[in-house]
Structures are given as structure tokens and as C-alpha cells.
Amino acid sequence: xxxxxxxxxxxxxxxxxxxxxxxxxxxxxxxxxxxxxxxxxxxxxxxxxxxxxxxxxxxxxxxxxxxxxxxxxxxxxxxxxxxxxxxxxxxxxxxxxxxxxxxxxxxxxxxxxxxxxxxxxxxxxxxxxxxxxxxxxxxxxxxxxxxxxxxxxxxxxxxxxxxxxxxxxxxxxxxxxxxxxxxxxxxxxxxxxxxxxxxxxxxxxxxxxxxxxxxxxxxxxxxxxxxxxxxxxxxxxxxxx
Amino acid sequence: xxxxxxxxxxxxxxxxxxxxxxxxxxxxxxxxxxxxxxxxxxxxxxxxxxxxxxxxxxxxxxxxxxxxxxxxxxxxxxxxxxxxxxxxxxxxxxxxxxxxxxxxxxxxxxxxxxxxxxxxxxxxxxxxxxxxxxxxxxxxxxxxxxxxxxxxxxxxxxxxxxxxxxxxxxxxxxxxxxxxxxxxxxxxxxxxxxxxxxxxxxxxxxxxxxxxxxxxxxxxxxxxxxxxxxxxxxxxxxxxxxxxxxxxxxxxxxxxxxxxxxxxxxxxxxxxxxxxxxxxxxxxxxxxxxxxxxxxxxxxxxxxxx
Lengths: 241, 306
Known about the structure:
The complex is a heterodimer of chains A (241) and B (306). By secondary structure, chain A is an alpha/beta fold. Chain A contains nine helices and ten strands. In chain A, a hairpin with a 2-residue loop joins strand 4 and strand 5 (66-67). In chain A, helix 3 (94-104) packs across helix 4 (109-123), helix 5 runs parallel beside helix 6 (168-183) and helix 8 (218-225) crosses helix 9. By secondary structure, chain B is of the alpha/beta class. Helix content of chain B is 36%, strand content 28%. In chain B, the strands form three sheets. Chain B has a six-stranded mixed sheet with strand order 6-7-8-3-9-10, with helices on both faces. A four-stranded antiparallel sheet of chain B has the order 2-1-4-5, with helices on one face. In chain B, strand 7, helix 6 and strand 8 (184-189) form a beta-alpha-beta unit. The two termini of chain B are 33 Å apart. In chain B, 46% of the residues are buried.
């Protein structure tokens, strides 16, 4: 069992404000790891460090075997990333988007070609391949963005609120894609405000004011907090209620 | 008394029909929920009802005023909290509130009582710039600014999107308090669990309303037998249950999967044990099967598929 992410006293401050406060945790290979916390708890800052976009103030972390401080570029090449705000280019076609991202991820032209065919087939959107992404329904865009994030076969994919605002059916179909990827050995780190989605994760961590206040399987967490669902756990932790 | 009445409202943007023949009526003192995902038409409907957008066809009145002919007066009696953060990031909390009060020809002092329960929570930060507030605090400030002129009707467009569940819950508690003061509220949200907090809801998808009723009325219309099932492997569980004879549908719902059967077999108990046996035969462990109460979300999915 390898750890895809390993942090030790990871800290990040902005002036006097400590956004991430000495967090220490691991994410195992093949896990679906839920990274939760209220807005302002430090999740986004922590994710930026783990995706090589921000350097820590102190402490250390490795992602896919690379050091976040010394090797952020190597990390960026080996991870996938998807969020609501950063996704595909609306005014490029499906095919063009795949080609663009394939190129950015350093794939060869022949590889891009074959992967495109596989991807289109898998999502059953071969007919839409030359349509602008902007014209697709949101649910399709989500699934496409996720598949594109997997194009270069990264060991870990970071998903930042991937299902925000999406209809309940598409939300679930999206999670089945996540399950499938996990079944194929990809590690997934997901942030979400949907507490039912927290239940789909193997383990979940909850950040409060820069620290990780809880980390466990959803089941164990609910038991230790005497809560019926993750919503209740969250409330108890975040508000001390 | 109807505070909002929409009749056959339709609107297209180019070739895309954003809303089609929307008919809805919101009663005085109600919290009415417009429940649907992104792209369903919620914001379009809100913009029309708040006089920011003209419909292609149909008509509507808010607080007895026509949205087209009486739009100037309408704007003075409604409060509007749009989807994205709408306040001035570089003004402080207090400055934002003062600004909105002055635009409506009033002052913070005049209507302090109405906003007090909410404002006291952010008052300690009144000299902080709005841009430096957390998501939950921004929501509270935006709500205060929408209420400062004592509107008759409040429009809240996805007030909880992007906000953590705790802040969302607190926000809804504030709305319930406002209802007790006689305020009529139309709230849109993609969160199905918030539907349960409304007096009545309209489920909207792809520009059309699928159902309007109380949350209980919506869930009562769910006819088919529903079970909550769990085992140690959710993904495999869902795949297997879809192959179960008599299964109409199966989806994940948090810790449990919801299994909907096509028809009721002899009894609930019989179905329960046959599901259990089936899962044992598929090598699932720690199996739990029990009847489930349908939620608004179950109904939404059902309506979407029809």
C-alpha cells in the first residue's frame, strides 16, 4: 500500500494569517479521499500546495513521489485536475479540447488520436465530437472534463467541487465515473459541499481553521461523533454544535 | 393572497429556450422553492420577475404590480439577492449597507429591527471590506442589503451555492425567521434537501416546471416501492442491484443505495428478503436492506427520467 500523498506539518501563512496549520496526513493509492471543510477553512490553499501551484511556508509534502517545494513542475505533469471554474474551453470543439489538453500533458499525436477515439466511445459522444463544448449540456461537459483530466493516465486526480449545481441524476452518473476510475487504480481527491457525496469516499478529512480536525472512514466518523449522517458530523465539527 | 403570479412566461436566448410556459403562483408569507440544476431556467425566471429581463411572452405580477408596466414601483418593493456575490468588495460591511439603504431612500437605523437578527452576526466586522469576508458572512451581508428597505417580496437566487453546509443551514434558519415576520420569499436552489425546508416547491428542469406542491405532496406522489440498501462495496452494489429482477432503478444516496422496484411483490418483507438473498449470492458483506422514505431528490430523478 503506497501513499500517493504524504504531508508532514504542512503549513502555509499569508502574513500573520495561517491558512494551513501544520497538517499531517496521507492519501493511499487507489483511494477516493474526500477533502472537506467550510469555506475559509484552508482547503483551497492546501490543494494549491498539493497541486504544485503554491509553495508551503514550512513543513513538507510529497505527491506521486515528488516534493511539493522542490519539484512542483513534475507534480503538475503527473496529476489530473478538474473544477467547476476551470474546465474545458467552451469555444473549442470536443475534439479540439482533447487535442489541446493532450498536447499540454505531453502526449504524442498518435497517442492523442487513439485516446480520443476511446474516450468518445466510452462517453458515447462520438457524434458530438465536432460540436463546440459550450453547446453541450452541463452534465456532458462534466463527464468530458473528467475524462480529459484522465487523458495522460495520472496517478491522482484532484476534483474541486466537480458536481456543484449539477442535476441529481448527472451527479450520480459522475460519481460512477469516479468509482470506475478508482477501480482502475487511480487515486482521487475530491472536495464537495454535498454531504451525501462524502459518504461515497473511502476516507474523509474535515478541515477547520487550517487544521485537520477529523480523518476517518465516513462510517467510523459518524460513530465517533454519534451522528446519523455526514451532515451532522460536519455541523458538530465546524460549529462545535 | 397571491404575491407572485406568473402566467405562461417564456423566454429564449437565440435558439435556446430558457423557460417555456411557466405558470406559478406564490402566496403571501410563503417560502417558495424553485428547485432545479444549473441551466434549468431559475435565474432567467428570477430576472423576469424582478423586472431585469423582458419575457418573450406571458405575463406576471409581483405584489400586485405588473412586471412590465409597473417595473419602477416594483423595484422599490422587492428585495433581490442574485446568484453571485453582488455587493461592493471594496466597501466595508457598514458602507455596503448604508449604500443600499440610501439607494432605497431609507437608512440603517429605520429598518434595523428587521435585519437585526442577521446583522448582529456580522456587526463585529462592520469595518471590514466585504471582499475580505468568508462565504457565509458575505451571504449574511447580501441578505441584509436585500432587506434594508423592508421589501414585501424577497427573491433569493441560489443563496447557498458554493457555501458550506453549516452556513447554508444557518442561512435557512434566518429565512424561517423572516417568514414569521410576514415576508414572502422565492428561493431557487439546486440542493434538493433544501426543498424540504420550503412551504411549497416547483421542480424545474430544462426550462419547464415538472411539479408544484408541498414537499410532502411531492414525495407522496412517488408510487413505486423504494428500498435503502447498503453493503461494503457501494459501486458493486449499485451495479448488481441494477441486475436484480424487478429492479426499475438504482442510485447512490449517501451511505445507502436507493433501489426502486417496478412493482410491489406480495409484500414488502418478501421483497426485502429476496434482495438480501440476491446480494448474498453476489458475495456482498454487511448487507442491510430496509424500506426507504422517498425524498424530493428521488422524485426529481424520477420526473427527469419521464
